[in-house]
Every structure is written in structure tokens, then in C-alpha cells.
Write a structure and sequence with these properties.
Length: 244
């Protein structure tokens, strides 16, 4: 019996190794913790008014943490915390987005806060990214990820790293479109990035975003143009940031 148990254990280990080598799914449900970092002075073109943020926080980098909960039938990506009360940038629109996705229907709901008001968007209307896969690889949170380059809104360069060892093709915020889970993402021109720091298999409770009073993406874009783009000096930056 003892030898049989050892044999079964060895077989299980071999199976996991072979599965990983073949890119088969090893992660079914659980949580993925992401750290989002943004260089605030660089984002706002080193405007002198951003010095107050650096003086208050002691850093140019604004750091926040998010959690992507992956269930059997749905996912929920939501804000977790920042690096303390001082490390906050309350003026940043859509800074604490929540993204809910029904895996059976593919329907996505995205909740954003802009200037004190919340909006719920249908993910069906969010522009997709034009991805191109590369052979470059990178280890993120213990998973080997493959790099892909893409364009958002036909002009914003995006770098994504994804792993095929997940049963869900998802990622941070509403970024999607790669054949696996996006564990790393960077928008160099916008000085912002999201990288997974911890992957934990579990059976998470998935919270759904209320689907009442939906705003179409085109209407949301008009609202942003009206409320954000006209702000002196920072309008264009805030407008783009609200779209992510």
C-alpha cells in the first residue's frame, strides 16, 4: 500500500510537470493579486504642481493593489488598497475600477468613478487591442509568460505578458484578447503598469456589478470629453486615464 501511495504521488507530480511543459491548464479558480504602479510627475508631463504629490508621498510612483477573483462561471477585478493614506491621488478618474465578467456568456460590466460619479459600462462596447505575439518570455508570480505587443485606440502602445496555464483568458482592468491570463501589462507612453505579485488557487466568492443604468461606451466618451478634456493643462491626460 505504501509503495502504491508513493507511485500515485510520483505520477501526480509527473503529470503536473508534463502538463506545465505542454501549456495545459493548471489554474482553475482562485485569486490573482496585481500591483499597479504609475509615475505621477511623468504622467502629467512633469508639471510643477505634481511636486506636492512627491513631497507628500516621498515617491514619484503611485502604487495601488487590485485582486482578480476567478470563479467557475465568472470573474471580478476590483480595487484592494494603496500603500497607505499618504499614497493617494484622489483626482485621478477611474482609479478604482471594478470589472465583472460572466464566463458563460462573455458579458462584461465595468464600473468606473469619474469626478464623484459612478458609471457602469457594457464591456461589449470597449475597443479591443490589436495584439501581435512574440517569442520573448518572462517569469511573473511564478508563471512563465509570453510577451505580446499591441495597440489601444490605434495609438497607445501596449506590452502584455500572458500565461497559458490558466483556464480563463482574462487580465487586469478590461484588458483582454490574449490566449491566456495576462499577468503583466505596461503602457509605456502613459507611465503605468500592472503586474501580478501573487497567485492563489481557491474558491473565491465572486461579487457581481449591478447592471442597472448602463452607459454605452460612446456616451461615456462624450461625458469624458465634456467633463475632463476641457480641464486646463491636465484634460487630455485625465481623459485617457479614465478610458483604461
Amino acid at each position: 500500500m505504501k509503495n502504491k501511495i508513493h507511485y500515485v504521488t510520483l505520477f501526480s507530480i509527473c503529470y503536473l510537470i508534463i502538463s506545465a511543459a505542454n501549456g495545459q491548464t493548471l489554474f482553475k479558480t482562485g485569486t490573482i493579486e496585481y500591483e499597479r504602479t504609475q509615475n505621477i510627475p511623468a504622467t502629467f508631463n512633469n508639471h510643477p504642481s505634481m511636486k506636492s504629490f512627491v513631497d507628500k508621498t516621498g515617491s514619484e510612483i503611485y502604487t495601488a493593489k487590485f485582486v482578480l477573483s476567478v470563479g467557475w462561471k465568472s470573474t471580478n477585478y476590483s480595487y484592494s488598497k494603496n500603500n497607505g493614506p499618504a499614497n493617494r491621488f484622489d483626482e485621478m478618474p477611474a482609479d478604482q475600477n471594478t470589472v465583472y465578467e460572466d464566463l458563460e456568456t462573455g458579458k462584461k460590466l465595468i464600473k468606473k468613478f469619474v469626478l464623484g460619479k459612478s458609471y457602469v459600462l457594457s464591456g461589449d462596447s470597449i475597443p479591443s487591442i490589436q495584439w501581435k505575439l512574440t517569442n520573448e518570455k518572462k517569469d511573473i508570480a511564478g508563471y512563465t509568460c509570453r510577451r505580446a505587443n499591441g495597440l489601444l485606440f490605434d495609438s497607445i502602445y501596449v506590452v502584455g505578458f500572458f500565461s497559458e496555464q490558466f483556464g480563463v483568458q482574462s487580465g487586469p482592468e478590461s484588458f483582454r484578447g490574449l490566449p491566456g491570463m495576462i499577468l503583466g501589462l505596461s503602457l509605456p507612453s502613459e507611465h503605468i503598469s500592472w503586474f501580478a505579485t501573487k497567485v492563489q488557487p481557491s474558491e473565491p466568492v465572486i461579487e457581481q456589478v449591478e447592471s442597472e443604468n448602463l452607459t454605452s461606451y460612446s456616451d461615456f466618451d462624450k461625458i469624458l470629453n465634456r467633463r475632463l478634456r476641457r480641464i486646463p493643462n491636465f484634460g487630455e491626460v485625465l481623459y485617457k486615464r479614465a478610458l483604461f
